[in-house]
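Hi R.,

Here's the input for the pyridoxal-5'-phosphate complex you asked about:
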Amino acid sequence: MKELHVNSKCILSGYQPKNGEPRQLPIIQSTTFKYDSADEMGKLFDLEAAGYFYTRLANPTSDAVAAKIADLEGGVGAILTSSGQAATTFSLLNVCGSGDHIVASTAIYGGSFNLLSVTFKKLGIETTFVEPDATEEELNAAFRENTKAVFGETIANPALAVLDIEKFAKVAHSHGVPLIIDNTFATPINCRPFEWGADIVIHSTTKYLDGHATQTGGVVVDSGNFDWMAHADKFPGLTQPDESYHGKNYAVDFGKMAYITKIQAQLMRDLGATPGPFNAFLLNLGIESLHVRVQRHCENAQKVAEYLQAHPKISWVKYAGLPGDKDYELAQKYLPDGVCGVVSFGIKGGREAATRFMDSLKLAEIATHVADARTCTLHPASTTHRQLTDQQLIEAGVTADLVRFSVGIEYVGDIIDDIEQALENA
Ligand SMILES: *Cc1c(COP(=O)(O)O)cnc(C)c1O
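And here is the predicted structure with pyridoxal-5'-phosphate in place:
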C-alpha cells in the first residue's frame, strides 16, 4: 500500500488488529508481564530480545501510541512520557550531561525556559539563548566546543514566533549537533519538522494531541537521521559501551533506533517518567480526530485574529496567519495549511484592562491550559511566567498586557460574540 496521508495516519497508524482482535487499541493496564523461564526474561533485561517485562520501561498500549506519533511525524521511533516537561528533559539529557552546553531559542515555553536556565544549570548544563530571528552569524557565535544540542519551538508558546527550522538545522549540523524541536503548537498536521532538517521532535501531548484536557503527557520522536557515529567524540553516551547495560553500544547495536533505545533503557529506567496505559489510550482517542480538530482550530483562530485586529480596544494582535505579521512569511513556508489555534493580543489599558476582559468572558474559560477543544484564556505575566523578571519576560516575547487566547472548536460566531461583550466591559 502506498504511504498514507497524515490524516489517515491519525486513525490507522500504531495499531492494526489481526483477525478477531479488538478494533480499538486495548488498554494493557498491567505493571508486569510473566515469563516461563528466567532465561527468557533475562534476555529482555539484556536488550537481546524484544518484549515487555515492566511498564516503567515499556508497555504495549503506550508503544502503539508512540508508534502512531512517530508515523505522523515521519520518524523511525518514539517514546511516550508522563508530561511534556519530561519529554523535553529526556530529549536533552539523552545527549548532554554535566559540563555540556545547549543553544536554545529565547521564544520557548516558560517551563522549558526554567528547565534550561535553572534546573539544568544546577546539573552543570549551561544554555545560551538566541533570538528566534537571529542571523546565521549570531547563531554561530552562540556555539562552544561542548555544545551538544540546539533547541527551539516551531510556534513558541506563548510568544507565537515561528522558528526558521531550516536555518536552525543548517547551523546545528554545521557544528555537528542535532536540532531538537518542540512541535506542540503546530502538531504534525500543520508542520513536520523532520522535513525541514530537524533531528528530534518532542510534544507536550497534553495540548492538541490529546485535545480534550484529560491528561498530561509527552512524546520524544527521533527522525533516525542524525549520524551519532560521525560525531562519536561528542556523544559518548550513544557511541561508547553502556556499562549499565553489559556494554551495549546504542549507535552500533541499535542503528537508527539508538536514540530512542537509550532513552528507554537509561532515562526511563533511572528517572521513570512513564505514562499510565490508560492515559496512553485516551491520548490515542484524541489523536484519532487530530486532523479534523486542528483544521477547525486554525479556521476559528484566523477569524478571531482578524476580528481582534479590527477592534479599536485592541492595541496589537500576534498571529502568524495575519498578513503583515512579522512571522507571516515563515508561516507561509512552514505552516501553509494553518498556524495553530492560539492567538495572543494586547488590550488598551494594559494589565488592568486585560484582567477585566478576562473576568468578563462567559464562554471562554480562564485556565492554565491551551490547545484543547474548549476556548480558554490566560494572562501569562501573572501565571505561567510569573517567575520571570521583566527583562526575561521581554526576552521570552511576553509583555505585561499579553492575553493568550486559545481558540477552541465551538461555533466561531459564539466565540467572537463572547469576546465582543467582554471587550465592552474592559
Ligand atoms: C505545555 C507545554 C509544554 C510542557 O508540557 P506539559 O505536558 O505541561 O509538561 C512544553 N512545551 C510546550 C510548547 C507547551 O505548550
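One thing worth noting: The mean pLDDT is 95.

Cheers,
M.
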